[in-house]
Amino acid sequence: MRVAMIGTGYVGLVTGACFSEFGVNVVCVDKDEGKIQRLEEGIMPIYEPGLDDLVANNVKAGRLSFTTSLPDAVKEADAVFIAVGTPTDKKTGHADLSYVYAAAEEIAAAMDGYTVIVTKSTVPVGTGDAVESIINKARPDADFDVVSNPEFLREGSAINDFMRPDRVVIGTSSDQARDVMSHLYRPLFLIETPILFTQRETSELIKYAANTFLATKITFINEVADLCEKVGADVHDVAKGIGLDGRIGRKFLHAGPGYGGSCFPKDTLALVHTARDAGSPLNIVEAVVEFNDQRKQAMAGRVADACGGSLKGKTIAVLGLTFKPNTDDMRDSPALDIVPGLIKGGATVRAFDPEGMEEAKHMIDDVEWCDGAYETMPDADALVIITEWNEFRGLDLDRVKSLLNAPLMIDLRNIYNPKEMAEAGFDYHCLGRPHVAI
After folding, report:
1. Last residue within a domain, chosen from 198, 227, 248
2. How far apart are CA 356 and CA 335, in angstroms?
3. Which of 18, 168, 190, 397 is buried most deeply by CB count within 10 Å?
4. Domain range for 120
5. Of 224, 246, 247, which is closest to residue 237 (Cα–Cα)?
6. Closest CA to 333 of 311, 349, 353, 348
7. pLDDT tens digit string along 156-190?
8. pTM for the full model?
9. pLDDT tens-digit readout, 328-342
10. Which of 28, 228, 263, 307 is catalytic?
11. Is 370 a catalytic residue?
């Protein structure tokens, strides 16, 4: 099998590398010549654990290659995956499909013989129909099928998510396309991975419905955390108590500063607008989007409250900037609201993130960037944890206390135990858990 992967962003590069590990010959295409050159040199454009070795091994084996020539890659391919970006249109709130449609036009011009065209990008219902129409208009004689095959990759564990997924969803009504997709995913059939074949429209909606449900779960526990603070309950135990119910499950029940990243903010907003356009508004999802935006904006105020009500003249040490650990992705990270909020309140901010600082420097101004966690702390008035990187879970608390002006920690990820922190001499503030006096 031969695959052309259009786009070498997070989804395209991981998917292409993993398919090549399955023994498929994959050519990854991108118009950015510098990016392709760096990939050929083994330099990854994103941070994802294990991706550099996976790419290097399959390039060496001759199954994975990179090019800027879409026609050369497509004309030899049995399947062409569209894995380009679908960012939120700032004016309308809908997913911007211009890159998907542009790729479809180029694919139409380059196809040679029967080709399965797969939308891997996250796209709203009806996009497959639009892609099919574009290709039919450009090439009425073309022999092809358009398939929906949404990705469910979690940043930081994407390779394992591809190799051992919870499920694979494939939307097509064509037996020929189904055969091609079954062949591509044969290694997963062999380990009895659930493979759901369904209509193309259903497949497109499954992706949005899944991400929106998870975002709703996060928002629910964040609201419960606020209630816990009012009534003296512990959100950690509430989450455990409801998560042990098999109908609910324990995942995504972790109180925090709000969800971010490349998927949840974009996909919830896109589904809201799709539903409105269809005349079937999703009131729950609209409330989720609104609450999440408000929560991220409110976090700087929580830090100010812990600092006595004002940030003016304070120095704040910030650990973690990316929206989650094990990625360098800053897209819609809570830090993009929290750090500017601290600065607007009059604070001086020193920050460190193991992987995200280079990207953060382009998105946040007036920050003192540090080379390590402890470098943020000397004479700081408070320490704020925004992202739960493993290296922040085991800080030397004696050292932290000796560096800070006062032993004040605001933990927006609840990674420490309030009682233990009080015993260690910290004025420890977290989300949805009772404050324990020193």
Report:
1. 198
2. 11
3. 18
4. 2-198
5. 224
6. 353
7. 999 999 999 999 999 999 999 999 999 999 999 99
8. 0.92
9. 999 999 999 999 999
10. 263
11. no
Q: What residue has token string 């409250």?
A: 305
- Residue 144, C-beta contacts closer than 8 angstroms, at least 6 positions apart: 111, 114, 115, 116, 117, 135
| Pair 411, 340 in one domain | yes
CATH number, domain of 87, equals 3.40.50.720
Same domain, 275 and 359: yes
Q: Are residues 146 and 240 in the same domain?
A: no
Q: Is 301 left (phi over 0), alpha (psi -120 to 50) or beta?
A: alpha
User: CB-side exposure of 165: number of CA atoms within 13 Å?
Assistant: 22
287 in the same domain as 139: no
> Could you say which of 150, 172, 198 is where a domain stops?
198
